[in-house]
Sequence to fold (203 residues):
Amino acid sequence: MRLVVLGLQGSGKTYLVKTKVIPNYGDEYLVFDPNREYTGFNRYTPKFTGDDRRIKEELGLFIRKIILPNTQSLEDLEKGKKPKKKRLKLVVFDEADLIAPSKTNIPAPLRDLVVRSRHLQLDIIFISRRPTDLNAYLMDTSDYMIVFKQVGYNALKTMRALKIDSDAEIKDLVYEQHEFLLFDRERSYQRHTAETLPENPFP
Ligand SMILES: Nc1ncnc2c1ncn2[C@@H]1O[C@H](COP(=O)(O)OP(=O)(O)OP(=O)(O)O)[C@@H](O)[C@H]1O
Ligand SMILES: [Mg+2]
Fold:
């Protein structure tokens, strides 16, 4: 599955992923962590966060040298290759608008990873603050979305385009209580907090 998590600064995006998603993957996950928010987790902290061109090069290397060699493609298994004992099952891109901002082409290696993710049996999470910051392709192709409180006309308009009337509910979410909407594949949504999230939220 692919999941996009959006929300204002401090709304609880990182907390939710750390406490409710990553623990389901044992040791078989990796976080791309530009803000150094994942101390103690399996993570890669990119060097070139302040340089648009070099961060994209670094992202390409991260995908080619670290992610892909540690995944297992369905094609390989069909060809009779031995299953890997340990493989990556989840990659989290926090601060995803850094590597895939809106209104620019999505970097080719990232697009390729998204397109191949099902064959690679790899779940991917993209975390960003506002829907207007993140490349729309990632939202349009995500299976699930988690949206914490948003403010601002354009952010809410983007949410309304995703699902009519969700903007009113998103405006109404309580920031201090870390409330969010969980959108499913049909973009039906339910209001939750980390505490009320169902056992198996991404069927
Ligand atoms: N459900 C929750 N219950 C209790 N505390 C929470 C909850 N969610 C988040 N917090 C706390 O709120 C603070 C902000 O959360 P977090 O760092 O996850 O926000 P964020 O959305 O990732 O922010 P940023 O955009 O700045 O990265 C943290 O101190 C975190 O521990
Ligand atoms: Mg965070």
In short: The radius of gyration is 17 Å. The mean pLDDT is 96. The beta strands are 2-6, 29-32, 43-44, 90-93, 123-128, 144-148, 180-183, 189-192. Residues 2-192 form a domain with the Rossmann fold fold (CATH 3.40.50.300).
